[in-house]
Amino acid sequence: MTWIELEDGVYARRYAELDQTLGLVVGERRCVVVDTGTDEVHGAEWAAAVREVTDLPWTVVITHAHWDHFLGTTAFEGAPVWAHPGCRTEMVAHGRYQAEKWAQTYREQGKDELAERLLAARLVLPDHEVTDPVTLDLGDRVVTLVHPGRGHTDNDVLVHVPDAAVVFAGDTVEQGAPPSIGRDGYPLEWPTALDALLELGPRTVVPGHGEPVDAGFVRAQRAELATVASLFDGVRSGELTVEEALRHSPYPEDATRPALEHGQVG
Ligand SMILES: [Zn+2]
């Protein structure tokens, strides 16, 4: 794992497992932690790394309700935990199911220790809601939490650091692999969510998985997702078969088929 200092007091921390990227914003009086990792062992490593940078009180933001973003929260004891209300709902409804499903995947990959850690992780539910934009005052700077509309999930939250022109995007942006468009994704609305992200005017965008990118990368990913949206629409209306749509996708079949067959329309 490595630290990247993006701007003064704004950090990304990269992990080999899942090519994951977690975030930290340090102000004069408090710090904001963006996502908490895949399990309690990972969360503890992440919390210790944050403590090497700052001993200020911490506030946690969960970018969306996928297990790898929230199962490390026990390490951030006493922190207020912000998320979209839909994130809490999904965690209550399917948090355990997500853990069991991925534990099975880890076992199939021979990663039994990760499977055990995943199943042992306790759920910490968010206790603060992001519906309208929320501004957190860190002392000498602010951080704004924004729900950009539905895209990767129905509960995505962006973490905007205006003075540094940095946006932590959760999984609404992905680098190094195609965006993950699953059963809880909204292909038709995702491009609009990225428009909302780009309107924040970021110089740097930090994906939930992969390296930090610039606004040009996000514009290109938006265009690809708009193509997927039109293919999804074509399949829904009967103009295209799934097989025809797959041939025109900017992404490989394994990334596109779940979107075409199971994407949400709201
Ligand atoms: Zn995700």
List the helices and strands and how they pair.
Blueprint: E1 2-7, E2 10-14, E3 21-26, E4 31-34, H1 40-53, E5 58-61, H2 67-70, E6 81-83, H3 85-108, H4 112-120, E7 128-129, E8 134-137, E9 142-146, E10 158-161, E11 166-170, H5 190-199, E12 204-207, H6 215-237, H7 242-248, H8 253-262
Parallel strand pairs: 4-5, 5-6, 6-7, 11-12
Antiparallel strand pairs: 1-2, 2-3, 3-4, 8-9, 9-10, 10-11
Helix pairs in contact: 3-4, 5-6, 6-7, 6-8, 7-8
The structure holds zinc ion.
The site of zinc ion (ZN) has 5 residues, from loops.
Q: How many beta-strand elements?
A: 12
Helix content percent band: 25-40%
Structural class of the helices, strands and pairings?
alpha/beta
> From the alpha-carbon coordinates, what is the Rg to the nearest angstrom?
18 Å
Coarse morphology: globular
Give the helix tally.
8
Roughly what is the average pLDDT, rounded to an integer? 97
Q: Tell me which CATH architecture applies here.
A: 4-Layer Sandwich
Tell me which ligands are bound: zinc ion
For the record, the count of structural domains works out to 1
Strands of the widest sheet, in order across it, are 1-2-3-4-5-6-7
Outline the biggest β-sheet: 7 strands, mixed
Strand content: 15-25%
- Terminal CA distance: 38 Å
Poorly predicted runs are: none
**CATH homologous superfamily - what is it?**
Ribonuclease Z/Hydroxyacylglutathione hydrolase-like
Under CATH at level 1, the class stands as: Alpha Beta
Topology pattern, helix = H, strand = E? EEEEHEHEHHEEEEEHEHHH
